[in-house]
Design a protein that fits this description.
eight-stranded mixed β-barrel, two-stranded antiparallel sheet
Length: about 180
């Protein structure tokens, strides 16, 4: 009987211990200020369009010399934006999220074996990924502020991106670096 009483006392004592409440994630930073646009040429044989990618960051995110992100904030990535064969960069106008792979479209967010691609928003908290949001619909408007001077482009963008029924209004106002790479497939 004494044994059962000790067991119950221990059980109650352990059950009454305060639990570590996880720190709630910080609010998403939806004002992005710097980033890059990467031109990949025509990497898809079956799609007669060029492809560019956008990689945008909030103020709290910095890249090290190896290209790894550090800090706390947000990163918006669009892996495949389709533009005409006559262009090597985004032109002013509206781009839509869809799977048609037509001019002025970009791919929705997808997960391939735990690796995000397409359009997604990363939230970093002290160098660690706090969440990944795969966008499945939306659009953005791209406007250069001045005449583009490669490798630096001053631009403004307004994104209205969605996942299920949640809408994310994201803005970019800042400088994009420009780089050219070969096909990414």
């Amino acid at each position: 009987m004494k044994r059962i009483l000790y067991f119950l006392i221990i059980l109650v004592a352990v059950g009454c211990q305060p639990k570590d409440d996880p720190t709630p994630p910080k609010p998403l930073e939806l004002n992005l200020t710097h980033g890059k646009i990467t031109y990949y040429g025509n990497p898809y044989d079956s799609i007669p369009l060029h492809v560019v990618a956008l990689d945008l960051y909030s103020d709290g995110i910095k890249l090290d010399s190896a290209g790894y992100m550090h800090g706390t904030g947000s990163n918006l990535y669009l892996s495949d934006i389709f533009i005409p064969l006559t262009d090597t960069c985004l032109t002013n106008g509206t781009y839509r999220c869809e799977m048609t792979t037509k001019d002025h479209t970009f791919l929705p967010g997808m997960d391939f074996d735990g690796n995000p691609t397409g359009t997604y928003l990363l939230q970093l908290n002290e160098d660690k990924v706090a969440q990944i949001i795969l966008m499945d619909n939306g659009q953005f408007n791209f406007q250069t502020i001045d005449t583009p001077e490669v490798p630096l482009i001053q631009a403004q963008m307004m994104f209205t991106l969605m996942v299920e029924k949640t809408i994310y209004n994201i803005s970019f106002n800042g400088t994009l670096t420009y780089e050219q790479r070969g096909a990414h497939l």
